[in-house]
Design goal:
mainly beta, five-stranded mixed sheet
Length: 142
C-alpha cells in the first residue's frame, strides 16, 4: 500500500486574508522584536534584526502586497524564510497553523487585487480559502 505524502504549509494571516507558504521555506517563526531601521531603505524594508548573531533584513508583507500598514499586535510574527541562500524576515499579522490541503486549485488572474502570478494556487481548508504564495516571486519584487 502506497502512502500519499502531502506537502505541509505554514498558514498565516495578513489583514483579513489567509495565506500560506511551504513549510520547507520557513526557517523559524519568531515573536515581533525591536527592529533597527536602515537609513534610506526601501519603504517595505522595516530594518534589520540580530538573530543569534546573524543580521537578518525584515520586510513588511503588507507593503509588498500593496496593503495599508497596521499597528503590530501581540499576534504579529516574523517568518524567517530562506531566499537565495539568505535569511529574510517577513512580518505577518498572525500565524495560524501548519496545515496540508486536500485540494489546491490554480490561482485566478487576480486575488483580492493582487496579481494571480504571486500565487502557486488556492488551498481549500475547512475554515477558508488560502492563497499559497510564491515566496520567490514576491521577494524578487524587492
Amino acid at each position: 500500500m502506497e502512502a500519499t505524502i502531502q506537502k505541509q504549509y505554514v498558514e498565516f494571516g495578513v489583514d483579513n486574508e489567509h495565506y500560506a507558504i511551504p513549510i520547507s521555506d520557513v526557517h523559524e517563526i519568531i515573536r515581533m522584536q525591536e527592529i533597527t531601521e536602515v537609513p534610506n531603505g526601501r519603504h517595505y524594508v522595516k530594518g534589520i534584526i540580530n538573530l543569534r548573531g546573524k543580521i537578518v533584513p525584515v520586510l513588511s508583507l503588507r507593503v509588498l502586497l500593496d496593503m495599508k500598514e497596521a499597528a503590530e499586535t501581540k499576534h504579529t510574527r516574523i517568518l524567517v524564510v530562506h531566499h537565495q541562500e539568505e535569511a529574510i524576515g517577513v512580518i505577518v499579522d498572525n500565524v495560524n497553523k501548519v496545515t496540508t490541503f486536500s485540494d489546491i486549485q490554480p490561482p485566478p488572474e487576480n486575488v483580492s487585487g493582487i496579481s494571480g502570478s504571486l500565487f502557486t494556487g488556492i488551498g481549500i481548508s475547512s475554515s477558508a480559502l488560502v492563497g499559497i504564495l510564491k515566496l520567490d516571486e514576491i521577494l524578487l519584487r524587492v
